[in-house]
């Protein structure tokens, strides 16, 4: 499976002069725990550019070539010294395990609701789908059709529900080698280091800034849709 400790990312064209408004591209090749290049994709990567002194940051867009190579694109939106950070959130094998659990055990994360009326209080389990082993309360959203159900309390009506909270996680659902793909200090949310420097310097744009067009319904949303600068969303 994917081992971020064996991987290094490269800033492409790192010697060129970057200006505000340019795009920065980073490349990496995923490797396994033996240091062998992987021949398939599916890893969940995250990247960002940031300047802590300016409280500025922006997310990157990940392109999976499905052959072990990944490209991350970043918009350069402010001048100064900018750092690139890349991390592996989940290896592709962990993603496959999560997909299996989503399909086979949609109840792995369970929720609870409390029902209360005239001094009587009961708490039952709730979820998107529940085995109909007991009567259910149907709280499906009439506008969106999003399903939501709770087991009906023994003594109270469904309308007596007063709150909603996460109950917890079903444990012991991983099988075989799946546990290896969820090691917090090994392959979950682990940083990927740069091959050399992780910094670039961005110069102010030599071109006059162009005015933003009017927001029109149906216009595709840019990715990312904005960035933080001086702790403000721009």
- Discrete helix count: 1
Assembly state here?
single chain
Mean pLDDT: 92
Radius of gyration: 24 Å
Please report the distance between the alpha carbons of the first and last residues: 38 Å
The percentage helix is: under 10%
Structural class: mainly beta
Shape: extended
The portion of residues forming beta strands comes to: 35-45%
Order of helices and strands: EEEEEEEEHEEEEEEEEE
Question: Which spans of ≥5 residues are poorly predicted at pLDDT below 50?
Answer: none
Strand elements, count: 17
Describe what this molecule looks like in 3D.
Strand 4 and strand 5 form a beta hairpin. The strands form three sheets. Strands 1, 2, 3, 4, 5, 6, 7, 8, 14 and 15 form a ten-stranded mixed sheet that branches. The protein is extended, with a radius of gyration of 24 Å. The longest helix is centred in the middle third of the chain and has 13 residues, at 92-104. Helix content is 6%, strand content 38%. With 234 residues, it is mainly beta. It has one helix and 17 strands.
């Amino acid at each position: 499976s994917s081992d971020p400790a064996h991987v290094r990312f490269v800033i492409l064209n790192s010697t060129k002069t970057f200006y505000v408004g340019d795009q920065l591209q980073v490349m990496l090749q995923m490797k396994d725990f033996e240091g062998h290049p992987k021949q398939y994709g599916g890893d969940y990567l995250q990247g960002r550019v940031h300047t802590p002194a300016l409280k500025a940051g922006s997310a990157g867009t990940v392109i999976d070539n499905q052959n072990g190579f990944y490209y991350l694109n970043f918009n350069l939106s402010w001048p100064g010294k900018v750092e690139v950070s890349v991390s592996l959130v989940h290896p592709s094998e962990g993603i496959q395990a999560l997909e299996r659990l989503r399909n086979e055990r949609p109840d792995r994360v369970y929720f609870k609701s409390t029902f209360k009326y005239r001094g009587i209080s009961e708490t039952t389990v709730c979820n998107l789908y529940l085995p109909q082993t007991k009567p259910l309360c149907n709280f499906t959203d009439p506008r969106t059709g999003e399903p939501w159900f709770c087991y009906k309390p023994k003594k109270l009506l469904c309308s007596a529900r007063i709150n909603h909270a996460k109950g917890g996680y079903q444990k012991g659902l991983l099988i075989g080698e799946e546990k290896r793909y969820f090691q917090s200090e090994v392959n979950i949310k682990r940083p990927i280091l740069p091959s050399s420097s992780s910094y670039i310097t961005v110069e102010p744009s030599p071109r006059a800034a162009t005015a933003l067009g009017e927001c029109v319904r149906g216009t595709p949303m840019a990715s990312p849709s904005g960035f933080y600068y001086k702790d403000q969303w721009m």
